[in-house]
Amino acid sequence: MIELVKNKSSSQLIDIKFTRDHIFAGHKGSVEKLAQMLAKQRELPLSTLLITSMQATAKAEVLNWIANIPDAMLTYQRGVWTVNTQGSTVPAVCSYKWVTVNLDELKRMMRKQPGDIVTKKREWMTESLNSPDIACQFAGDGTPLIYHLDY
Length: 151
Known about the structure:
Blueprint: H1 2-6, H2 16-22, H3 31-42, E1 46-50, H4 58-68, E2 74-77, E3 80-83, E4 90-91, E5 96-102, H5 103-112, E6 125-130, E7 133-138, E8 144-150
Antiparallel strand pairs: 1-5, 2-3, 4-7, 5-6, 7-8
């Protein structure tokens, strides 16, 4: 497993679904615009998004996952690795920047104070730096890919 990871670029170690679900890093424009797009897209009362790229750290995170995943969580049959996805997260090596949007508050401000959305962003948007727990799943070739975060 470790050799497969070492032979991949960091971007190849991040599952496409993970990127779609969690990452808007590299966006153009302000965090406020990003947060508004996120809130409208997800329609959840509170929605959190990773805004730091993991490409520079993906290899370290996957190697850390391999080193710390309990053996009982992994199965190797007929040349294929599988992981029990329940409880298969391990603490991340690095910290990442996040934005959380309070959609109800944002909608209220858009109705009552649309000109104050940016100046009063602290009322509807929170930026933070956290170390999540990371889970991987196996690609077809047996390489673990970052698939999920618990934050």
